[in-house]
Amino acid sequence: MEEINIDELIKSIHKTNKSPKYSMKVIPKKSGGIRLISIPDNHTMQVQKDILTALKQLKLEITDAAKAFQKDTSILDNAKAHIGNKYVIRYDLRDFFDTIFVCRVKEELEKRNVPPKLIKIISKWCFHHGHIPQGAPTSPLLSNLVCANLDKRFQNLVATIDATYTRYADDIIISGDKNVLVYQSMYKRIIRTEHFFINYRKIWVSVINSAEIWADNPTAKFFVLYHIITGIAVDDERIFIRPYYSNKLWQEIKSEKFHKDIFFTNHVLGKILFVYFIEPKEGIQMYKYMMKKEIKLDEFQINLVPKIFRQYFQCNCN
Question: What are the distances in angstroms from CA 186 to CA 58, 157, 191?
Answer without folding.
Answer: 33, 9, 9
